[in-house]
Amino acid sequence: MKDIIQLLPDHIANQIAAGEVIQRPSSVVKELLENAVDAGSKEIKVIVKEAGKALIQVIDDGTGMSGTDARLSFERHATSKLRQADDLFSITTKGFRGEALASIAAIAQVEMKTKRIEDELGQHILVEGSEVKKQELVAVPTGTSVSVKNIFYNVPARRNFLKSNSVEMRHILEEFHRIALAHTDLGFSFYQNDIEVYQLRPGKLSQRIIQLLGKNHQQQLVICEEETSLMNIRGYIGKPENARKTRGEQYIFVNNRYIKSNYLSHAVTSAYEGLLQDKQYPFYALFIEIDPKHIDVNVHPTKTEIKFDDERSIYGIVRAAVKQALGTHNITPSLDFDSDVNFEAIINVPSRSAGTSSEERAYGQMKGHEIPRKQLENWQELYQASLDESRIDLQGEMSSKIMGSQVNRREEAVAGKRSTMQVLQRYIVSPVKSGIMWVDYKAASERILYEKYQLSLENRSGASQQLLFPQTINMNPADFSLVMEIQSDISALGFAFEQIGKFDILIQGVPLDAASRDARSLFEGLLEQLKHHSSSPDTDHRQQLARSMARKVATIPDHALDKEEMESLIDRLFGCNNPNYTPFGERTYVVMASSEIENLFKK
Length: 603
Hints:
single chain, 5-stranded mixed beta sheet
């Protein structure tokens, strides 16, 4: 029987290795930027075309390489950063695994030009699919320029998995932000399709944050600093009121290397306990300095994950530092030392007069469980209040019982119109043949608006309400790129806007359904929703747009609905293609059968 195990050819082995390191164009940007930083550069220039699919070029003014070094840099496990195994536990550089250029050259056409300051001529090397096509002497400036063209040209299956240009561009800018934030002492420039996106001069961290992420960060930065025997931490955190519903502006660096750590991220967000709404994410850019012997950075091919030898202590220090920063800047809730919190915890009763002392307030709160005699005279009001509380309890019990109930939709809804009523502001209750139907006003509105916006996008027919006072919105390059790519679809919803600056747009009109809403918050909220759902398997951005817009516009009614409004909502809901669920999969209505109602009374 023949031997069946054989060594893989080099070009296949290189492509397998490339799959670990190079996942998309942003991976190339990351690796080339790290090499440029390690080369001792002062100025680094990044040029991108077609979101990196056509070209990624990184030019630096670093030390450059000799002819031999330039050729060896394209071999696997070739690095200038390590000499022995122990060096893995004292790493202070970015690229050290020695697979960056080898992996890039395996799946793209790579051109390198490099020269040392002591050499008269530099090196020009051309590599395609791991094969060196050319190496010659050329006249070039000191430093290194690496051009990567046609990424995944020889692996079409991988290229097909790349997302739209706006999505890929956002990933590239994220990598650029991470490197630029970690090295505020270096100058960076970034060009997309020959348009200057960034021109960053060396400066303070706060200046770099504002340059990268936008002027709106200027008022939300809070200094965070702490020094301990184990580690030092410095940086900025954002104020709670500026937190967003999407991740994307959370940065943790360890020894100036960006890392992803759910553990440390939890340490930061837990310090905001009681200050954030559900599923909100604050901005932070925190830099941890720690002895390299206490961490292991060689645990992941992309070097974005590390291990600490004492994670619990690191967690505690990070959490304490963030909590102290929030407290120092009077952001955390302050304690009222004029009142007795033990008494307040018993029952929260309004004080009898504005001039009552703290002792009298405490005594009144202790007596709060007793109903004042004066209130007993108005027994009808007390009775009505108890009824309202009972309804709230009953509604909570019913909602847990009726999720699986079915209804003969249109006929039963029409049958109960005569007794339709509004309950707890948000719900419309209507008798139907089989029992009682509860319609969630906001959820039903989401379904109705979603299908309306889908039709507007299909027919390009969204109605717009012009603003009396147009509003300017400043965006970061990633958000601006996303908006401009789908500009025609946003306009089809009813938004009217134009570009007035590098990354500024002027909102001149909003969809007719949202005429009463603030244009800025509406547009920025729509953008946040789009980014939040852009990572879902559903890649149809029009569906995401209609879905996000429906969620932003639909609200709980702020007034008592009349009979016509309630009946109109029910009619429009059951006129939808799928009246049962919102575009996010939540129930729009539930039906409680007559038998279930009788069971509540044990009949």
